[in-house]
Amino acid sequence: MSQVSATHFRRNMACCLDTVTANRIPLRVMRRNAEPMMVIAESEWRSIQETLYLLSSPANALRILASIADADAGRFVERDLLEPDEGDRSAD
Predict the structure, then answer these.
(1) Inside any domain, residue 29
(2) CB neighbours (10 Å) of residue 6?
(3) Which family, according to the similarity comment (predicted)?
(4) Full-model pTM
(5) What are the pLDDT digits (tens) for 15-29?
């Protein structure tokens, strides 16, 4: 994670924001006598919020973490992806 001073951020805001967006890496903005601020792309923020929502249910969190552990241990089955119209059975 990169970090810059508030002065640098103010003087180079467009460049800093473009870098955050392009690299998908948060930027820490250091402030004198104040808590640092984080700058992240909106899509990253949405992703974090979705993850927090999915993990907010203890039962769902256990299922997700168990699935990740299974995948890490090689316990999974590979499947071919369906074409969009192959999976749509509503026309039947």
Answers:
(1) yes
(2) 14
(3) Belongs to the phD/YefM antitoxin family.
(4) 0.67
(5) 999 999 999 999 999
